[in-house]
Amino acid sequence: MPPATPELISSRSPRVLAARRLAKRNFRGKERLFLAEGPQAVREAAGHRDAGVHGSAGAATLVELFATPEAAERYADIIGAARDAGARVHLAAEQVVADISTTVTPQGLVGVCRFLDTPFEEILAARPRLVAVLAHVRDPGNAGTVLRCADAAGAEAVVLTDASVDLYNPKAVRASVGSLFHLPVAVGVPVEHAVAALRDTGVRVLAADGAGGRDLDDELDRGTMGGPTAWVFGNEAWGLPEETRALSDAVVRVPIHGKAESLNLATAAAVCLYASARAQRAVGGCRSVTES
User: pLDDT by residue (tens digit) across 252-282?
Assistant: First the structure.
C-alpha cells in the first residue's frame, strides 16, 4: 500500500509558517514553544508531560507533529504515541517538512513542543546530589551535549546561567539527543545565585578549569567526591572568569596524561560528571552508572 497523501502541501500554510517561526529565539520565547526534530526527540517528547500540580501528570509536552507520509509509515509507533498524547498530527509534503526543519538532511518528523524548563527553586527543593551548571556556555551544540552527558551520568539537574545559550536552540535540542526530556533544567539563573543557593543546600561546588589548583585524580584518591556535587563548566573559548572560580569550593582540572593540549568542554564535562557519579555510587552502594 503506498503512503498516504499529505494534507499539507504548501509551506505558506498558517500552521507551517507558525512552526517555521520557532527557529527564531524571539518567537520561541513569545510562544513558549520549540522544535524537536527526528524520531528520537519526537518519541521522547510524545512520552513527556510536565509535573503538573503536586507531582501529578500535567500537560503533554508535544502539541503538534509534522510528518511526511513516508516517515509516518516508518515510525507508526511514534505517530500513535503523539496522537495518544493529544498532539495534532499533520501529514505534510516532504518539502514542507524540510522547510520547517533546521537540519540539512531532515528525517521527516518535526514536533512542536511546550517549554519544559524547571524553576531553579524546585531543583533546590529536590536536594539534588549531582548537578551540571553551564556558566557562559554559548555554543548550542556544546550545551546540548553536556546535557546529554549529565543525563547519562545520572545527574539530577542541569542549570544554564543567564549568560548561556538558549536551551531551546534547535542545535542544542538536537545535541541533547532526547536528554532534554529526561531531567530538570533551569534556565536564566545568575551564576552567583546558582552557586550560593546550591552551597546553601549542602552541595559542594566544583569549578572545572584546565588551570585548576586541584587534580581530579587526587580528589578521587582523597575520597572527597562522594557527597552532593555541582560542577560549573565555563565558556568554550575562555573558560571560567576569575570571579566565577572564586565562588566555588575548589577549582579542579582534568589531568592530561598524554600529549593533548586540552579537552573540549563536552569531553571534560563527561569526565567530571562520571567521576562524581562513580564516587557517589561507591559511597552509597548504588548500581554502576553503566548498568541498564
Answer: 999 999 999 888 999 999 999 999 999 998 8
**Residues in contact with 157: Cβ distance below 8 Å, sequence separation at least 6, in sequence order:** 118, 123, 126, 128, 131, 132, 183, 184, 185, 186
pTM above 0.85, yes or no: yes
Nearest to residue 168, comparing CAs of 55, 65, 41, 51?
41
Residue type, 273: L
Lowest mean pLDDT among 19-23, 69-73, 178-182, 287-291: 287-291
Contact 35, 173 (CB under 8 A): yes
Biggest distance spanned by C-alpha atoms of the chain: 66
The CA–CA distances, whole Å, from 39 to 31, 36, 42, 62, 173 equal 23, 9, 5, 13, 13
What are 93-98's contacts with CB under 8 Å, separation 24+? 93/6, 93/8, 93/9, 93/68, 94/68, 94/70, 95/11, 96/6, 96/8, 96/9, 96/10, 96/11, 96/13, 96/16, 96/66, 97/66, 97/67, 97/68, 97/71
- Beta-carbon-side half-sphere exposure of residue 200 (alpha carbons within 13 Å): 9
pLDDT exceeds cutoff 80 at 5: no
Strand partners, 158: 132, 185
- Packed helices 76-84 and 38-46: angle between N→C axes, nearest 10 degrees: 30
Name 38's Cβ contacts closer than 8 Å, sequence gap at least 6: 103, 107, 109, 174
CB 98 within 8 A of CB 198: no
Q: Which three cell numbers stand for residue 136?
A: 557562559
Which are the contacts of 32, defined by CB distance < 8 A and separation ≥ 6?
114, 115
User: CA–CA separation, 150 vs 158, rounded Å?
Assistant: 7
The pairing of strands 204-208 and 130-134 is: unpaired
Q: By three-state DSSP, how is residue 272 classified?
A: helix
Q: What is the pLDDT of residue 237?
A: 80
